[in-house]
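Re: beginner question about structure tokens

> Can someone show what the tokenized structure looks like for a real chain? I only ever see the sequence side.

Sure, here's an example I had lying around. Input first:
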Amino acid sequence: MNTTPAAPGLRGDAIAGLSVAALLVPEALAYSGIAGLPPSAGVIALLAGLLVYGVLGQSRFAIVSGTSSAAALLAADIAAAHSAVDRAAFAATLVIATGICFAIAALLRLGGLSNLIARPVLRGYAAGLACVIAIKQCAHLVQISSTQAQPLMMFAELLQGYSRWAWPSLATGIAALALLFAFARLRKLPGAFVVAAVGIALSPWLSAHGVASVGPSTLLPTFAAPALPPAGEWLGTLQLGAALVLVLYAESYSAITAAAMRHGDPVQRNRDLFALAIANVASGVLRGLPVGAGFTATSANDDAGAQSRRAGLFAALASAILVIVCAPLIARIPLPVLAAIVIHAVSGAWAPSAFRPYFLWRRDRLLLIAAAIAVLVFGILNGLLIAVVLSIVLWLHQVSTPRLSVLGRLPGSHDFVRIDQHPDARAVPGWLVLRPEEPLFFGNAAAMFDVAHTRVLEAHGIHTVVVSLEASSDLDGTSVEVLGNFATWLRNRGIGLRIARPRQRIVDLLDRARLPDLPPADLRYWSVDDAVHD
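And the corresponding structure tokens:
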């Protein structure tokens, strides 16, 4: 058997794995700090995510580890835990519960779970969350402990306390940030690893100037005993757990889909749900962070030349070696350097390229801005819930607004188009052709046919109304009743009704409904032209 083609692929996976490991290890430590957990939490999440997804996942490029958004949500959940609960054990229990929720979603084949969060909401939420994370890291930059939980109040408190700022620490953080952004232009260079290494080398001198370091901490996994919340706090815990599942999968699916589209690879949503389920359970059992496929790490893996899921396994091996070899050095990483790595990691959420399309398209700008502001004003969880509810409300407002077009025929053709958009289109004498521009459902059916009544009363000399249902894939009970009432109202005025372009499901439904004033013969017009000429 010829194995020549496999060698370059294996070499490419090994190089990509080494490159990604240099990025992931510093970020894993930083994400542990975001969650308020020991550094081991990020390391365990990194290894568990890479190993489990490398074996069970589908994407060739996905890098599954802790993410900044999940770490911030976990921190919010830990803060909401009852004081009598062991916070670390409670966090582990929540991560295990998150994995169980992923498993249930996989068994129920809920691969479209991420669609519950609109892309603009996710982008705005990510931007707001990045601001929250950056504000909290600013406290490490200036070495001031804040008493405020609300991000804007915390930022104001930090500004007011400028006289207490540790200027050497702030200078260290700014220098580290400048290096990280400079290294970001060199895509093959693991900037976070280099900056962390420089910080470790300079740590004795920085410590002499009062710059704090990470300090000693075990990086070895420990098994977690369950720490269930008190009975009265289950609802809040479930809400935060649901938010973790939604955000993790929405972020993971976005990263996996983007990589798949670049290479023409298939996407198996339910298989990825199952892989994320096992990865989160494994991470939770070992007291790690919740895991998902991060966009930055996945893109870095793709850019580094990964060819298969083996790149993730190589990254896990390289990460484990780095952690074992460098464990004594990790304690010497200056805190402002770690804070700079976190801020740089989330800075992509502020990139203008993420927002520009929505302003160019003039679509969903309010959702984008509202999601970001909601997180800053109301907190991580409440901000997400408010943004999701707002997106649903705006969608309901859009589809509930009755938009009913009057169609006319273009001269010399069989095409019927909107008269208000095509001056050449002409109404067929004696016929009124109407088309709902939104799918009919209980929220807009009555209002839509109220407009249809008005159009009929405004028309003169018509004998038949044609309603084109091309925008509706199905009808609910309310829509069927309203359609039947409209047919009866027309029949009482001596006007016929014909349905054009119905889906077969609608034809079957109306056949079963047996509306007295809408016989089956008036339901089977597959085009408007057929309905008018029959």
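Each token stands for a local structural state, so reading them left to right follows the chain. The two ends are 67 Å apart (CA to CA).
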